[in-house]
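Lecture 7 notes. Example A: sequence first, then its structure tokens.
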Amino acid sequence: PLAFAGEIGVGSAVRGLMQLNGDALAILSEKGVSMIQGDVGLGPYAGVISPDVGTVEYSAQSMGQFMYTSFRGVQNLRSTQAYGDFDTAQFSWDVWSFLRPRVQTSTFFESNNLGVINSLAVRNKSQYRLMFGDGYQLTGTFLREGEMPQYTIQYYVKADGSTPHTWDVVCAGVESNGRDRLFGASNDNTGYV
């Protein structure tokens, strides 16, 4: 049993938590990315990874690398040469014209709902998927390590052929044979596997 409870303020709304390598926990928030390092019994300490680039809600995923989307695009957290140090990298320039109106906060609130409503890591396909409120999905496929992902854009509509199909709830699971199984549901009470 744990005999520790505590509180560490991060100064903005938390968008996700990710266990990093070693003894670090990433805190992805609206205004930046921080981390907590150290042993619980010895007094953990906070650090800053990215003070100015926060995380878009519902976009944080772990898939061997730690992915999230900010107002600057799709990013990841990666280890640096120094033990316990991390930095960020952005790699969505080739789809920036599609992504920008969907992740810029002012556009999200001043127009139709284009914003991120969900994300999903499909590990067996090395994919990071972002679902948007207008029925579009952006899929980044990592073909080779060290190279930029290949992006594709999908558009989902309901059976009537014109109403956008939005994925309100998504979840990925792994079968006993190691195969990914994706689950999704819409606000019209339909579910998919």
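Example B, a different protein, same format:
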Amino acid sequence: SFLDFSQAFTTLSFGFSLVFTLIPLGCLLLQFLLLNKFQNYKKENPRINEEVLVLKCQERYPGSQIFFRDFKSRLLFYQAFLVFLILRDLVFSVSIALLHKFPLAQAILLVILSLPLGIFIFLFKPFKSRWNLAQQMLYEVMIFIVSINILIMATFDQSNLPSINNRINIGKLIISIQMCFNCLGILVLTILF
């Protein structure tokens, strides 16, 4: 069955995972409400300089500078990127916990979750800094490539094909891609510093 609690630890771990899922969801809701308050305050006070509004918001809500500092626009559409990024990771983590008996569904969900955020970053480029933008683009490309490879392996599992050599090649591909991204990161850091 979908949720089979045959052991006491399984029920306990499910309870903990539920609590640790609800806490981030509550934090995400608070973040979204904060961004919405800022947007409403900006509409109510069109004559006040936007930077002054940001400083007031940061004074009233310490730690909120993460929503304003790195994004090139103060539109909710751009600032909500961080909320959607965290939400994607949260949904993926929950799917791993709940769909552990359905690896193909997990892999499809991973591809579906990684695609919209990657497209958003490539189309709208929400960051002020090119470095932050390039870094996030690389992360999204890595996540997408790995998720496609996981989808291929889950498809092998579902179809019951004898695919040991294919699995080894896909594993080598994932490791090679990771090494390339690591080397690229070292090269960029060497050039910048």
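Note on Example B: The chain has a mean pLDDT of 80. The CA atoms of residues 4 and 131 lie 46 Å apart.
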